[in-house]
Specification:
Radius of gyration: 21 Å
CATH class: Mainly Alpha
Oligomer: single chain
Number of domains: 1
CATH architecture: Up-down Bundle
Number of helices: 16
Number of strands: 0
Distance between the termini: 21 Å
Order of helices and strands: HHHHHHHHHHHHHHHH
């Protein structure tokens, strides 16, 4: 990874790295601010809070399912840098809508504000569906083969550091401050996108299929017949399904089970970002730059075990006095609070170590003119799995399953991910 850090000095990597970092920061700042605002200031019932989070998650994921195939085709048949600039221009308009929704909701027009914010989330999903395949697919085009894993690790680590900063900022900024910040960051991201070097089409020009359903089906069929891609995509999909469930249940769990305020919720989410970033860097060092899944089964099993421990800790956590919530200082003064911090860091570190090599498989298994479509196929399958996870959470909540018990459902997915990763290891290493 020390060698990979040298890429940050080069124009073939730095503008893309910065553009995706700012995009991830902005996306997470807005979404976290919206969820915290809805959880702590609009909804006052655990079911309502969890349902809103599930709805927002599903809306944000849906464009990946519908548009990833189209985005992959366009990225593999047009200059990827040009598409990046178009997408980042759209981000400025999206943030105008989202910032307006925050201000409208805070002024008392709650329903209109929520509608505007959820529409912005949908548009951000479209934005990410087109940008997502490019940020990985462009790497083999600008980097040498031995640099791809390091570059992927840097992108992944930066993404989660951006999530960390966006999460922390959402907990600290006022509604007005958030609205101003997302607009400024979107403008800076647009300027950085102008510096991304050209990444023209590498292979023959494609006949683009604009039908989202048939193009998605054909894309998946064209990708999933390759054993190592099939196994990598399935393992990543299980990982993100676990992640989707955790994202949905965490804010209500922190508020209603750990009886803590929004700053603790922000802190808990930030822990994940730090941990995944650490895991992303650590696994590259352990593998010596080689794309391999040999550590992946152990990592995801360890992640599942830590989630079980976390669930057990939440059951014995001492509740705050009635009608009050712990602030961050009070939370960390409780021994249970410190244990929860340690366990959540372990969950995130092992998760980062699991998923980063699998993403590297996506871009190194196929030729450079197919990388965007491969990442897009992964996004289609991942998003479908995450939507299923979001719906599953709502179903479990309606059946009366508590957030701490849903954690066991997440942990139960880890052996399946481990088995898939083991099969991938046998197939490739």
């Amino acid at each position: 990874m020390l060698n990979a850090l040298g890429l940050l000095k080069e124009r073939r990597f730095l503008p893309l790295f910065t553009t995706q970092f700012l995009g991830a920061f902005n996306d997470n700042l807005f979404k976290t601010a919206m969820v915290l605002f809805a959880t702590y200031q609009i909804f006052h019932h655990p079911a309502g809070e969890q349902n809103f989070n599930a709805l927002a998650t599903a809306i944000g994921i849906l464009p990946f399912f519908l548009l990833s195939a189209l985005s992959g085709q366009l990225a593999d048949t047009h200059d990827k840098a040009r598409i990046i600039r178009i997408v980042k221009t759209a981000e400025v308009g999206i943030m105008l809508l989202g910032a307006g929704g925050l201000l409208v909701a805070s002024s008392g027009l709650t329903t209109l504000g929520l509608v505007m914010m959820l529409l912005a989330v949908l548009c951000l999903g479209v934005h990410s569906a087109f940008f997502g395949p490019i940020k990985y697919a462009i790497l083999p085009q600008h980097l040498e083969d031995h640099e791809v894993l390091g570059g992927t690790g840097l992108v992944e680590a930066a993404t989660y550091l951006a999530i960390l900063m966006g999460t922390v900022s959402a907990g600290l900024l006022s509604v007005r401050g958030t609205a101003i910040t997302v607009l400024v960051v979107a403008a800076i991201g647009w300027l950085m996108a102008l510096l991304v070097p050209p990444a023209p089409r590498m292979g023959p020009k494609l006949t683009v299929n604009f039908n989202p359903l048939t193009s998605s089906w054909r894309l998946i069929n064209a990708t999933m017949h390759i054993p190592r891609l099939f196994l990598a995509i399935c393992a990543i999909s299980f990982f993100w399904t676990m992640g989707a469930v955790l994202i949905i249940i965490f804010p209500p769990l922190v508020k209603n089970v750990l009886t803590a305020d929004k700053h603790v919720s922000t802190f808990v989410i930030a822990l994940f970002s730090i941990g995944v970033a650490v895991g992303s860097v650590a696994i590259n060092a352990m593998l010596g730059g080689k794309t391999s899944a040999k550590f992946a089964p152990f990592c995801v099993l360890a992640m599942g075990a830590c989630i079980v421990v976390f669930s057990l800790l939440t059951r014995t956590f001492p509740h705050a006095p009635a009608e009050t919530l712990y602030n961050l200082t009070a939370f960390l003064e409780i021994p249970h609070g410190v244990l929860i911090v340690i366990v959540l860091m372990a969950v995130a570190v092992t998760g980062g170590m699991f998923v980063v090599p699998l993403y590297a498989f996506l871009t190194t298994t196929v030729t450079k003119d197919q990388t965007a479509r491969t990442v897009a196929a992964n996004n289609v399958v991942n998003s479908g799995a995450m939507v299923i996870g979001a719906v599953f959470v709502q179903g479990l909540a309606s059946a009366g399953v508590t957030p701490e018990n849903m954690l066991f459902v997440v942990a139960a997915m880890s052996p399946v991910s481990a088995w898939l990763a083991y099969k991938l290891h046998l197939a490739c290493d």
